[in-house]
Write a structure and sequence with these properties.
Layout: H1 2-8, H2 11-16, E1 22-24, H3 41-53, H4 55-61, E2 76-78, H5 80-90, E3 97-102, H6 113-131, H7 147-153, E4 157-162, H8 165-177, E5 180-185, H9 191-199, E6 203-206, H10 211-223, E7 228-231, H11 237-244, H12 246-256, E8 267-272, H13 277-290, E9 294-301, H14 306-313, H15 344-351, E10 354-358, H16 360-374, H17 388-395, H18 397-401, E11 409-414, H19 422-437
Parallel strand pairs: 3-11, 4-5, 4-7, 5-6, 8-9, 8-11, 9-10
Antiparallel strand pairs: 1-10, 2-3
Amino acid sequence: MERTDLKQNPLLEDVKNLKEVVWINPERKPFAEAGPFAVTAEEMEEAEALWQRFAPFFEKAFPETAKAAGIVESPIREISKMKKALEFRAGGEFEGDYFLKCDSELPVAGSIKARGGVFEVLHHAEQLAKEAGLLKRGDSYEKFAGEEFKAFFGKRAIGVGSTGNLGLSIGTISAALGFKVTVYMSADAKQWKKDLLRERGAEVVEFEGDFSEAITAGRNRTLADPEAYFVDDEKSKLLFLGYSTAAFRLKRQLEEQGIDVSKDRPLFVYLPCGVGGSPGGITFGLKQLYGDAVHCFFVEPTHSPAMLTGLLTGKMNEVSVQDFGIDNRTEADGLAVGRPSALASPICRELISGIWTIEDDELYRLLALLEETEGVFVEPSATAGLPGPLKVKASGYAEELGLDMEHATHIAWATGGSLVPTEDREAFYAHGKRLLDK
């Protein structure tokens, strides 16, 4: 199988040899011709309505959301100093304005996974409450923070397999609602994430293998309990929809800053990719709002190019990086995935503009550079999208499409970091600084 794939896709030889590559997706379609998909724009709107219903609960249970009236959202910041630093390193400029979407500061769980993971648990909790007659039309969802609801959910369990951040989001919101929650974590998950989950009331079960082993075992053990619910990162439609609602929030933020998105003012979004649910959901949402005016690129570690191998071979989730002798070992623990999402893969095949891969050392250099130029800390995996404008320029993608890059807006999506302990932050920065100074 492998020999045939390499012959048909010569780029896979470089991927197999752990080289950084840039791939422009030849199967992307004009938005009007894409789909139909397993999710719809109407479902995306319904998902945003659920977030709004739960706003009173968040105000009560998570006081840090009170200033935003219970809405779980992150800021967007222009990073012009980082732009100059990247240009200096590259020895050339890129056109357009450059922003950071700071999901590294997202309330509740401190990462992009709060969008999908928290949403799915909320959806499940709402369904249970309705079926039990605990929730009536017109009720304030502040009730979900009360003892009656916690006692009710305390008789039920939730499970999830995770490399780190999804587990944090599921564990945090499940425990806050009162569920018994178990997070099945792979060996590459950071110890501080496991410790924090236990502090927040979750049970953590550790595995020596990678994400695939953790999620398979977690799925089997959870589904064996009739009172338990499993959040399945490889297949979940609800996770995907939770991520997709970020598009509504980003659109409002861009409008507030007077930023127009159109054919003549293209939007480029650079998204770190693990299993593909979060970047796929955001891409789907942005395409619903902006169509062909938005161009989404994914970034994966050279040691964990799951979505890239799935799309390059056309085999989607039926192929893993291990099939090509790639070890799936990376410091970017949130991206340490060997097999892409069965749900997200076919959607991404038609909607994303491309994928590039990045070495771990470069993640650390970018972490240190962002800290030095903008005073912003993110975890290593969250830096993956930062070189996006330079990658696009070098690829010739914009010229091929005749895009006006002078009026482009670039957004690197920072996916996590605010909960990283001080000791780890300092170690990450020191490591990145040493690499920068070489």
